[in-house]
Amino acid sequence: MSMMHASGVKDAVKATSMPPTASLMRWVIAATLPGIATMSYFFGLGVISNVLLAAAFGIALEAAVLRLRQRPIRVTMNDSSALLTGVLLGASLPPASPWWLIGVGMIAAIVVAKQLYGGLGHNPFNPAMVGYALLLVSFPTYMTLWAPPQALLPNDLWAQIVGTLPTAQLDSLSGATPLDAFKHKGEAVLASEFWAANPLPNGTLSAWRWVALAWLAGGVVLLAKRIISWHIPVAMLGSVLLLATLFYLSDPSHFASPLFHLLTGATLFGAFFIATDPVSAATSQRGKLLYGAGIGALVMIIRTFGGYPDAVAFAVLLMNLCVPLLDLYSVPRPTGQQKASLGKPGEQP
Amino acid sequence: MSNAFDFPGGIYPPERKQRSNQSPLIEAPLPRRITLPLQQHSGQAATPCVVVGDAVKVGSVIAKREGMISSNLHASISGMVSEVSATQICIDGDGQDNWERLPSLDWQRAEPSALLERLNKSGIVGLGGAGFPTHIKARVVERHAIHTLVINAAECEPYITADDLTLRHHANEVLEGAQIVAKLCGAQHIMIGIEDNKPDAIEALKHALSNYQPINIELKVIPTRYPSGGERQLIKRLLNLEVPSGGLPADVGVLCHNPGTLLAILHAVRDGQPLVSRVVTLTGEAITQPGNRWVRLGTSVRELLEQAGLNTPELNQVIQGGPMMGTPLLTLDTPVTKLTNCLIAATLEELPPPPAESPCIRCGECESVCPVALLPQQLHWYARAQDDAKVERYHLFDCIECGACSYVCPSHIPLVVDYREAKSRIRLQRIEAVKAEHAKHRFEFRQARLAREEAEKQARKQARQAQQRRSPTSTAASSEKVDLRGLRIAHAAAKASVKKAEKTLARVAQEDPKQSLDDLEMQLATAQENLKAVELQLAQAREQQPSEESP
């Protein structure tokens, strides 16, 4: 057994040895900060209220379930994984989502998707995306309340969070996201006509682009720190770009440009922060490439032919389903063996 | 320098070799008392051939090899045997250092059989770690054509500098030792694999290579990366050959030796000096005079570390071997054996205990560093679940236990510990399964022994008769027809089965030094008994035959 440990050794070579799990999680949380800050700048303090509420729910729910399961609370909580789930779900929701909406999403994420399956390391699905998907199909009204870019402290922020805002007023707050708008432009309308009609409030498109670039910056930090491997993001973005380019080239008047797909919506956020969740992703390097490419392809298929404009959550969950199969069929060939085992009965050594 | 070939994975742990590679290789003081365990090699323990009170010299045989995979043991100091037990022999030294050497052999002229016998007598085993008896390894040529002898000087484990210093001080002799082995195994090519973090040793080798060498030797400097010193990894790196799973380097025509072993081989052949000392790296923050010493086998670890300035209050643990694959010593009152290449007297700060384990998050980092391209994480799940069928499907037994996966695991899961447990559990099951088989083999052995004794009795009887028959008139005494041809066939078959049993035993023992070899040794003994019996019968028959053919 190795008596040298990656951490604690004073002259350990950090370039290849991984930081401990808890610090991996904290690095990912830290890497979300540029994205969250940029979102708050454009969409107001509601973004921060989302994240804080979701994180608080995450910690409270995890502690409660650990207590029920009679597991050590402090040691387990120390890994910060519930906090990270909260941050990721919070960042995915429309700004200033009501507290109960966040609560329901976090229950689905932490209690159902994570702890009922056995806690960290055992969940087959990405917890944050389970929460998001549940909310999206259960509360579509609230989940599309993406306000246009606004002041840092929007009107009725507090009323909306605590849920005292009349429903009639909710509609007046909402605005379509660029993906949403493009999705519902109508069959008869050509892309050029659609854009000419100026369907989005001023600054919406550029706000989304800046946010996407901020997520990209966080992702680059994670890659540089070797917190995540390049396989999944590169494969996912590659397949999005490839398919978007194919669609766009086949009919530019009906399909959005590759850059539009990349820079609006959750593509970059998903590629670096959601799809890379190691627990629910494929494990081998070849598996990761297939997994990422699958997510990218599903994102493009759902966006183009499906009913949901963004699709990252569903694509990730669908590929989570495929992980056992991917793991089985992406086994590398061990040195000295004729071929990979593929889970079939091997020769008795 | 060639980067053309590579093995997957690998890690770059801190090397920490500076601590022990700064001072020259020196002799450790002569110990006053030594303790020599009878089991210092893979295979069967040696059998004592001295009793308490016997006077011995350095190099006197004190325990003989037992069975095929075994090795002689020699006194490493001169003095008096003070204890003989089932596991060890102690000698109290007389401080004289009187030697008993075998005659010198000229390896260029000597017969291979004489060289092999010398290796056998000298108790030489692989000094790299597994301790496989060298004379058995040298006989591999009987079954395989060897094209290349690899000198494994990679020494990739952190801290250890024993091979480095051996090469710096004895490069010429190591190369000469390699020539002997190359001659024995018929290798036409010798390749030295060394990591680029040993510039002085590389320089010494280059200098030594400029002298005349009968067989072409190639020096390959490879980038430092753990575990390039693994036999299979090094062969991949140097020759781009993949040793098949469950096989040996010999299967791809390669033999691997560590520099220390080659030096010991030369000492045995040229100087008639059996294996009584070895180079040990003394290092770690808890000693003040780190470095490499020539240490007599059986020297107490405590004594050795104290001579190197052991700072007992600072000492947390002593690790025998390297920090990646070595084992912590439970007590310092343990002797240096043929397998002790390094002693790390570590402080708590230097090698702290592992942090608490947390759940596996399936990050796959372990897979990316595995030099065998296994899936350590899947193995972890199945090993913990005791799903033995699955761990074998995921090639648990291809794991070389290098510890790279444990090293990078962010959840601090002691993966290699899991694998070792799973391996021993599976081995145990297999042992249970072969126990019945073993009982059968014991019975067969008894039958063979009885047959051999019967044949001996017959032979004695016949000898008596022959003596009585001296008078020329009584030739007609034995008239029964002797099936000489049948006996010849039986003899050949018995000989073949002895060969086969030896082969199996050698292969199994070399593949897996920790495995119990009782059953295979028993089968070999049975085959040998059978051979003896048939030989006797054949000799008898031959004696009778002329009397029948002559008329």
From TrEMBL, chain A:
Tell me which residues bear FMN phosphoryl threonine. 177
Q: What is its EC number?
A: 7.-.-.-
The lineage's top-level taxon is Bacteria
Query: What does this protein need as cofactor?
Result: FMN
Main subcellular location: membrane
Q: What subcellular locations does the record give?
A: Cell inner membrane
Q: Which UniProt keywords apply?
A: Cell inner membrane, Cell membrane, Electron transport, Flavoprotein, FMN, Membrane, Phosphoprotein, Translocase, Transmembrane, Transmembrane helix, Transport
Q: Where are the transmembrane segments?
A: 48-68, 99-117, 129-147, 207-224, 231-249, 255-276, 288-305, 311-329
Entry membrane topology: Multi-pass membrane protein
Q: What Pfam family is a match for this entry? A: NQR2_RnfD_RnfE
* General function of this protein: Part of a membrane-bound complex that couples electron transfer with translocation of ions across the membrane.
Q: Do you know which NCBIfam families this protein is assigned to? A: rnfD
- Kindly give the PANTHER family that the UniProt entry links to this protein: ELECTRON TRANSPORT COMPLEX PROTEIN RNFD, ION-TRANSLOCATING OXIDOREDUCTASE COMPLEX SUBUNIT D
Assembly state and interactors? Answer: The complex is composed of six subunits: RnfA, RnfB, RnfC, RnfD, RnfE and RnfG.
User: What family, per the record?
Assistant: Belongs to the NqrB/RnfD family.
Q: List the HAMAP family.
A: RsxD_RnfD
Name of the molecule in the record: Ion-translocating oxidoreductase complex subunit D
Q: Tell me what organism the protein belongs to.
A: Vreelandella neptunia
What gene is this protein a product of? Answer: rnfD
Automatic annotation (TrEMBL), chain B:
Query: What cofactor requirement does the entry state?
Result: [4Fe-4S] cluster
Q: How is the cofactor bound?
A: Binds 2 [4Fe-4S] clusters per subunit.
Q: Keyword annotations for this protein? A: 4Fe-4S, Cell inner membrane, Cell membrane, Electron transport, Iron, Iron-sulfur, Membrane, Metal-binding, Repeat, Translocase, Transport
- From the Swiss-Prot or TrEMBL record, state where the protein is found: Cell inner membrane
Q: Which SUPFAM superfamilies match?
A: alpha-helical ferredoxin, Nqo1 FMN-binding domain-like
Residues holding [4Fe-4S] cluster 1 = 360, 363, 366, 409
Q: How does it sit in the membrane?
A: Peripheral membrane protein
Task: Identify the EC number(s).
Answer: 7.-.-.-
Q: Which InterPro entries has this protein been placed in? A: 4Fe4S_Fe-S-bd, 4Fe4S_Fe_S_CS, Ion_transpt_RnfC/RsxC, Nuo51_FMN-bd, Nuo51_FMN-bd_sf, RnfC_N, Soluble_ligand-bd
Pfam families for the chain: Complex1_51K (PF01512), Fer4_8 (PF13183), RnfC_N (PF13375), SLBB (PF10531)
Domain spans labelled 4Fe-4S ferredoxin-type: 351-380, 390-419
Specify which residues bind [4Fe-4S] cluster 2 according to the UniProt entry for this protein: 370, 399, 402, 405
For this protein, the parts annotated as crossing the membrane are none
* Chain residue ranges for the region called Disordered: 1-24, 454-482
Specify the superkingdom: Bacteria
Q: What does this protein do?
A: Part of a membrane-bound complex that couples electron transfer with translocation of ions across the membrane.
* Entry's family note: Belongs to the 4Fe4S bacterial-type ferredoxin family. RnfC subfamily.
Quaternary structure note: The complex is composed of six subunits: RnfA, RnfB, RnfC, RnfD, RnfE and RnfG.
The protein here is known as Ion-translocating oxidoreductase complex subunit C
Q: Which organism is it from?
A: Vreelandella neptunia
Taxon lineage: Bacteria, Pseudomonadati, Pseudomonadota, Gammaproteobacteria, Oceanospirillales
Gene behind this protein:
rsxC
